[in-house]
Amino acid sequence: MRRDLQEVRRSLPPDVLAAAGEALARRTLELEELAPFLAPSAGPEEAARRPTVAAYVSMGSEPPTGALLDRLRDAGVRVLLPVLMPDNDLDWAPYEGADRLVPAGWGLHEPAGERLGPQAVTRADVVLLPGLAVDRDGVRLGRGGGSYDRVLERLERAGAPSHLVVLLFDAEVRDEVPAEPHDRRVHAAVTPSGVHRFRH
């Protein structure tokens, strides 16, 4: 399934990818977990609280996140991005703009700023996750590297109330995907056409 999904992604033309990135940015900022803080009608309490979103820099034919990262930052959201460590776990650093991203291993781009430690993700209101598919029960199919399995386990151990949201193309919301006993389910998926909510 991973191979087939990645093959479909690789076949998408650049204009389709660009349009998907713009739509994902718009849909994500409409999430009910963020909207109260970002709406023009936000009250003083909401407006004074700066939400934190853990996101990621897309690579290859993944749904593009560049527009989303900039719009979140422009809206006053504190954005954290992952930094891959030698053991495949993830550290985190603040997003300070596209010009402050540096090339890293495996074709990744990472923030050049201060490292905040692996636990920083537990303070995120929303965690945006990469993936290849998700099913109607919220089971996410990742790329198989295990980095985000560690992140999700860390969030669970900490009792973090973070909302887990996977960013996908529309056709990647499936009836069923393979699940392992250690898999943590996500709360929602954002695709170019809208937000899909899952009941656990």
From TrEMBL:
Membrane-spanning intervals of the chain: none
A Pfam family matched in the record: 5-FTHF_cyc-lig
Cofactor(s) for this UniProt protein: Mg(2+)
Entry keyword annotation includes ATP-binding: yes
Keyword Magnesium: yes
InterPro entries: FTHF_cligase, FTHF_cligase-like_sf, NagB/RpiA_transferase-like
EC number: 6.3.3.2
Molecular-function GO term, any one: 5-formyltetrahydrofolate cyclo-ligase activity
Gene3D superfamilies documented for this protein: NagB/RpiA/CoA transferase-like
Broadest EC class assigned to this enzyme: ligase
Keywords on record: ATP-binding, Ligase, Magnesium, Metal-binding, Nucleotide-binding
Reaction(s) catalysed (UniProt annotation): (6S)-5-formyl-5,6,7,8-tetrahydrofolate + ATP = (6R)-5,10-methenyltetrahydrofolate + ADP + phosphate
NCBIfam families: MTHFS_bact
Similarity field: Belongs to the 5-formyltetrahydrofolate cyclo-ligase family.
Name this protein carries in UniProt: 5-formyltetrahydrofolate cyclo-ligase
